[in-house]
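Q: My labmate handed me this sequence with no annotations at all. I'd like to see what the chain might look like in three dimensions before we decide whether it's worth expressing. Could you predict it?
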Amino acid sequence: MRSGDEVINGLVFRFLAISRYLGSELRWLAKLVLLAAAPATLSAAYPIGEIIVTRTLDERLGSTGSVSRIDGDVLAEIRHNHIHEALSRVPSVWVTRGSGQEHLTAIRSAVFTGPGACGKFLYLEDGLPIRPTGYCNINNLFEVNGEQAGSIEVWRGPSSAVLGGNALHGAVNVLTANPEGASLSLEGGAYGYYQARTSLGGRIGRHYVGLSALGSRTDGYRDATGYDQQKLSLVHAANLGTWQVRNTLNATNLNQKTGGYVQGFEAYEDRNLRRSNSNPGAYRDAWSLRAASHWQREQTRISAYMRRSHMKFLQHFLPGQPIETNEQTSGGALIRQGFEAGTWAGQFGVQVEVMRGSLLEIQDQPTDGSAFLMATRPAGRHYDYDVDSIMAAGFYDLSRPLTAGLRLLHSLRLERLDYDYENRHLTGNSRDDGTACDFGGCLYTRPASREDRFTEVAGRLGIERDFGARYSGYLMLGTGFRPPQATELYRLQQGQTVADLDSERLLSAEVGFRARTWSLSAFSEWTRDFIFRDANGFNISDGKTKSLGLEFSGDWYLGDHALSLAVSYAVHKYDFSRDAARGERIENGNMMDSAPRWLTNARWRYQPNERWYSEFELNQVGEHYINAANTAKYDGHVVLNWRGGYRLTDHVNLFARVINLLDKRYADRADYAFGAYRYFPAMPVQGYVGLNLAL
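A: Here is what I predict for the chain of 695 residues:
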């Protein structure tokens, strides 16, 4: 029988042989996989000790501030079909579900759409961004294996001082699990939903190897809205001399049929409309691949990473329904060095990453509709460009005790982002053949090839005070920034030849108090250079917003019962006046659209013994305006869910859940545009059952 080392090495060399037939970008990833597997050979002389886990947000950002964690065992019980089911347990977080796996995120903010929306939140995997700075996907969370994560952490508030650009309003960090033993889980439910997941982990010789994989499919509740998705996570850990090494490979794939809005006031109440889909041919196909290698020795930590993603989808929400294809290949390194100097302690470091991306938008058929739409939205290529970028940053984090139980915290990050944009189509807004469109020109404007640079600084300053062993309080001032994304700079509309945009900036003040089982925090935030599309269709960055909020989360244990509450109350307002796109008028002091004041998650868990449990969950989204002019409103909703499980034997667990237990008719997302109400209707009551086998 071959040794574990021989098995691993054989797989590595076989993989590299196959990689010869891949594209150049994927060969880069293959080489990184070889690097990740190299310790399997090199560390044969060293026994593996404790498996290191990538640093959490708590460790990188310090304990001061608002960080929430959903542990892996809780995620295993939630068994979310969509990430919003898990993140609703975090105060001030609202992930609105679109069609299939699509979503829009809000963290201490409104839900943003259009220019300026993508990239306001940083999504990480094991502490590393899953996308390059400036090249976001607004649906980024379907590119991570949150279903099988070791934990999910959410940082509420600006964290650019430590994590960098795009961490403007907050960050979500998905930690890859280290499974132990073997398990197989099968599940079925409403509307043709099936899921299978497996995990396997343990030692092979002197190495730890772990695998987590899942596949799911559904026919969809609405017409032509089914999807298939697959996710895979691989982990390898070993000791190499004095270094602890952890290597990960994460891959996802999504093939989705997409549904659009249903139109009409409270259309989600109508039994037929809510199941309809006016865009049965819409789709989204996306895959992602990320490899990372983490090396740690004492206070030195080095992480190298490579990423590749590709997405193609029908823009069913636009007249003419063009098809967009975008992709990116990127990689980088993050180096951190801890230190102690007298009463000061902390870390300093650098991060560098490079990216090559592209975007192609093609319309196959002529546009239907008015003479204006048909003339200004011609068939053919609308955009075709490449973007190369380089991001470099230096940072430090410091802490110093002032008195017994009182500490000073300070962080600073300097970041530079360079874009090199190459237009691969005709400059301007002509048709494919160079002829002009009527009504003043074609809608789609392609700027000439150019370079853009953005240099930003973010900092935070805070104090933390212990009140005995059980309580602590803190006061924190922080700033965040978000550089303009590539699509905001280079995918322009009629009349705008250059988008002269500044990075969006945020200033935050937060005060909080924590005990062992509960926390309370209050925050105030001000943003400037808010990017949006004005009445002329131009991407501009002269908006301002302001927010004020209060958050509470807590857990109470009463014998066999456990009660949990996560609630937030916040006011988000526009701080400027301007005519905006779609005929809207923003007035200073108006509430931001899609910004509920109240968000609540409450749970009651009953577990009389180790064999079974039952949990009821209530989710509340408060009423909110759904347009910037504050003339249209959604009344909000309250939804009740139930989950339970029973351990049949030591190796067999049964589980079930009922989502929307009371069959509430509501909207996952509500909007008002072009003089009409429109909604993504939520699913009615749905049940799921399954079993988990510990092999």
